[in-house]
Amino acid sequence: MEFYEKLEKIIECFNINQKFEMFYKLLNNFDKFNFNSNTKPKIFQNPSYSKFCKIVPPAKVPRRRGFETNEKKAVILHAIVHIEYSAIDLALDACYRFRNLPKEYYYDWLEVAEDEIRHFKLINSLLEKTGYKYGDFPVHNSLFEASVKTQDLLSRMAIVPRWYEANGLDANEKIINKLSKINDNFAKEVIDALKIILKEEIPHVKKGDKWFKWECKRKNLEPISTYFNIIDNFFKDWKKKDLNVKARLKAGFSCKELKILNEKTEC
Length: 267
Prior knowledge:
single chain; about 270 residues; mainly alpha; globular
């Protein structure tokens, strides 16, 4: 079975343990695969988590307020674990959807998927300490919808790693800052986990930056104007209030881009 057929089965698999086993088997055989293919990728109709999560509009997802009870802790952790699980399928889809690219491209995104699996396990173990599990709260499918809408490499790299994952760098820092004000040992455990994730997500955005600019070069496009043209087509209001400037600069964003996102940015 070829590389892309195996990836399709992994992406569609909704048994989490089986999904991870299949992934590691593929990763361990990476050098045996041929990445050339004339077959067209499937457009997935539903995310794999639809089998065990109730999908609702973003406004219907439980609000993350407080950390006083196990349920409130679980709501926060469930939102994070859902992002990490979604990120696994997004990284796998980046390999599956775009074919006949350099071998380095596929290794980069399998490496991201491996990190996201580890991040999922890290947060999921904390979630289960609260007495809840992944699927106990409704979720939205915004990241899955973004993957469906980005069927070319340029828009995928712009929208998923360089927009959504980069936004995660901003959000992660804000959550850490809020939890640091809570005198709670469990909050400290969550902070430690989030710091690991924040540090390791920077290279993920950096990989998206690399392949976005690679595709711009291949198409003879200017990266900054191209990026914001794509963002304009996807979002009505994309100006940012808070940026994790240090993390975004490490991830490949230029100071010029950050000033466009937020004119008050100092870098």
